[in-house]
Amino acid sequence: VRAASALVVLLTACATTGDPQRDLTALRAESDDSYVLAASLVTEVGPRFAGSEGDARAVQWALRKFTELGFQNVRAEPVTVPHWERGDIRVEIRAPGHHRLAALALGGSVPTPRRGITAQVVAVSSLEDLQKLPDAQVKGRIVYFNGRTERTRDGSGYVKAVPARRTGPADAARKGARAVLIRSIGTDARAAHTGTTKYEDAPKIPAAALAPPDADLLERLLGNGPVRVHLAIASRDAGEAQSANVIGEIPGETPEIVLLGAHLDSWDITPGANDDAAGVGVVMAAALRVAALGKPRRTIRVVLYANEEFGVSGGKAYAQAHADEIGRHVLVMEADSGSGAAWRLHANVADADWPLVAQLAGQLQLELGANGKEGGTDVEPLCKLGVPELFAMQDGSAYFDVHHTADDTVAALDRAGLAQVTGVFAVLAHEASERGAGFGRLPAAK
Ligand SMILES: [Zn+2]
Description:
- The protein is an alpha/beta fold.
- About 35% of the residues lie in helices and about 25% in strands.
- It has helices spanning about 1-10, 15, 35-45, 55-70, 125-130, 155-160, 165, 170-175, 210-225, 275-290, 315-320, 355-365, 380-385, 400, 415-435; strands at about 70-85, 90-95, 100, 105, 115-125, 140-145, 180-185, 205-210, 230-235, 235-250, 255-265, 300-305, 330-335, 340-350, 365-370, 390-395.
- Strands 3-2-9-5-6-7-8-4 form an eight-stranded mixed sheet. It has a five-stranded mixed sheet with strand order 1-10-12-11-13, sandwiched between helices.
- β14, α12 and β15 (about 365-370) form a beta-alpha-beta unit.
- α10 packs across α15 (about 415-435).
- The model is unreliable at about 1-20 (pLDDT under 50).
- Zinc ion (ZN) binds near residues 276, 308 and 336.
């Protein structure tokens, strides 16, 4: 149909569907609105790991903020989340010499026996490198993944490095390892990075990440000869807990919905300013900027998801709970990439709508990315059901300095970046809300 005609509709959207008095420059105002919201969540709540007391306070914060800011239909939709407690950790080089190392258990790691594990270390650079080692060289040892995370604007360095954390422990366990250490999946910090590991059906062995300078120390010693490390982790699987997706809306004139999402939870060891208080601030502020122009044509629904970090519970629960209204979702966007400025626009849209995405990228002075390539984690269950997505890629150059570390504080927020991203979200949400024809639906994944 509609690539051509919809483009015309888009270009004339404000004149044809909106109030001609609307001043669209307000959507991209130089404002600290999203920063103030992100700082409020960090300051008033702090760490908010799924199922924790902080998580419960985050839900209360979101309900209160939505209400104070004038959102409608404010509610908390229950989500069951897994809960895990990391307990204490001790990692020491026992020979040669004696060094205490800064480390964090990987999310979901099983504990060590009470007295810990002491074993020789075998270093590998990647999952492939591990597979090449004979089992005899792995059995009974602590496997150390030394892969470095490359600093990149598009986050590809993280994507390349993260398999060592996700499946390294399971792969090492299958070859008889007693425990796993990894160099933190991050670019620069004294603090260690945490993040989920997945055992799948492998034997469960304890696993932890070393802070980069401590990883460097271990590597220098390994360069000289055998190293023995002691590892003690007192983590605990605490079963299930209750959390919630918190929702607020700017009601529109039609039953159709433009969904803006971010996640409310953080890892336990961090205030999570960039991950993802920044995203929470962006989606709330962007919706308010659209609301300030008058009643939108389609409803802007802001969803603050429960537990993205430790299993995407909220994203999955939302798609299930709203199965009967999936067809009313005309577009989803997710903010979960820190506070760097947006620079490229990806999408998951029908081919016929790609020219529209190109038009929007041009309008926002963003590079045009790819169709169907990347997208948000929490909205993925919706996209699989055919809901179109726009994905504003943000500058990730500095993000992995602090991501999943104790250093992810308000001081690490990029204020100018946040203001720019908020403007991008506001413009895209406004376009998706006001445009005559919505985006066409994608074929649902099997
Ligand atoms: Zn996140």
